[in-house]
Amino acid sequence: TLGVKQLIVGVNKMDSTEPPYSEPRFEEIKKEVSSYIKKIGYNPAAVAFVPISGWHGDNMLEPSTKMPWFKGWQVDRKEGKGEGKCLIEALDAILPPARPTDKPLRLPLQDVYKIGGIGTVPVGRVETGILKPGTIVVFAPANITTEVKSVEMHHEALQEAVPGDNVGFNVKNVSVKELRRGYVAGDSKNNPPKGAADFTAQVIVLNHPGQISNGYTPVLDCHTAHIACKFAEIKEKVDRRTGKSTEDNPKSI
Question: Which residues form the Tr-type G domain (predicted)?
């Protein structure tokens, strides 16, 4: 499921079914989609299925009078049950993810600016941890260490930035030329990020015209980094539904 843990299925264009707003057609689509999402790792009981018409606004913000047969959607998940009649209620029932403030700071740089009267201002989104003025940050892989003078979001000063915040922060004694997009900022005193010559990754091949084997050289996009790399060794093939290994050291995938 590529890390997407929660799902809503909006069955659109119900006004275009034959006849319009057909319950059998909705049930047919619900059955087919349930079967498909089950194969890729979702539990259909935890997914809201909502028949809607975006064009006419049916079941978008309030229950539609044109589908009296639809008694509402229900989801059953370990965090509790949820129910409702329209799409906006299904969106409101999505459980917000916990912000990983307890983990070490990681902030991939999106850009670096030089602002007159202020100085060097890297910008990016906090992925984990907390960024505060006074933090001594280190930028990997260049291993540049400096102090954060101030943190801003939407032109307002912050006392601390948490995961999900897109921020700019002013740093001391570092020029714009020393930093670049793709670098990762971390707290120098708490498990700082370090450059790595190699690492083991879990990869899902969605679509590829040929075979992939040892020595394959793709361009890797990781957060804001964009860099060439090489597959040194394909260690195993894994069944993505069960997570169990199906083949060790495959020649190709």
Answer: 2-96
Mind listing the domains of the chain with CATH numbers?
Answer: 8-92 (3.40.50.300), 107-187 (2.40.30.10), 196-253 (2.40.30.10)
224 with 182: CB under 8 angstroms? yes
7 within 8 A of 37, measured Cβ to Cβ: yes
Q: Output phi, psi for 32, to 5 deg.
A: -65, -45
Q: What is the pLDDT of residue 157?
A: 94
- Please give the C-alpha separations between residue 52 and each of 19, 22, 211, 246, in angstroms, as whole numbers: 15, 11, 41, 41
Sign of CA dihedral 39, 40, 41, 46: negative
Q: For the CA atoms of 17, 18, 24, 25, what is the dihedral angle to 10 degrees? A: -40
Mark 60-85 as b/e (b = at least 16 C-beta within 10 Å). beebbebbeebeebebeeeeeebebb
3-class SS at 90? helix
Location of structure tokens 């057609």: 25
How far is residue 63's CA from residue 99's CA, in Å, rounded to a whole number? 33
Q: Render pLDDT for 80-129 as a digit per residue (tens, 0 to 9).
A: 889 999 999 999 999 988 899 999 999 999 999 999 888 999 999 999 99
> For residues 127 and 100, what is the distance between their CA atoms, to the nearest angstrom?
8
- Report CA-CA distances (Å) from 180 to 151, 174, 208: 18, 12, 30
What residues of the chain score a pLDDT lower than 50?
none
Q: Distance (Å, rounded) from C-alpha 66 to C-alpha 61?
A: 14
Q: How far apart are CA 179 and CA 138, in angstroms?
A: 11
